[in-house]
Design brief:
Blueprint lengths: L1 H10 L6 H12 L4 E2 H7 L5 H13 L3 E4 L7 E4 L12 E6 L5 E8 L17 E4 L7
Parallel strand pairs: 4-6
Antiparallel strand pairs: 1-3, 2-3, 4-5
Helix pairs in contact: 1-2
The structure holds zinc ion (ZN) (2 copies).
Amino acid sequence: MDQEIDKKLKSRKIKPTAMRQLVLGILTEQTTAISLPELERKFEKADKTTLYRTLKTFEENKLVHSIDDGSGSVKYALCMDKCDCQPDDLHVHFTCSVCKHTYCINDLFIPSLDLPYNFQMDSVNLVIKGTCPNCSH
Ligand SMILES: [Zn+2]
Ligand SMILES: [Zn+2]
């Protein structure tokens, strides 16, 4: 388990520190995206700034991606191993209106969009709202 975590950090050229290992451990356990306030609640003793910096380092090194699901706080989710966070790698996200969880739909890529002449896309954010399997019965 710990080896897996270190391997993941190293594959993204992130130096393993105790904090990074812990945060990545939590992100790995999550099936849905997590916001900074949610992460803070899991670390009573950790400093907010340190947690924020850890997430930013992960994001810069493409270990996690951030999602703006319209809830007001940005959420973070692990990237797939091969993800390079380019527009071609981007997938659809799904926010459940009942439990408010945000899921990565990794198999569903965002289709290429024909933008008008001279409009250049850097990123695209597609969030579908609805009811997730846990809430649909
Ligand atoms: Zn739900
Ligand atoms: Zn995602």
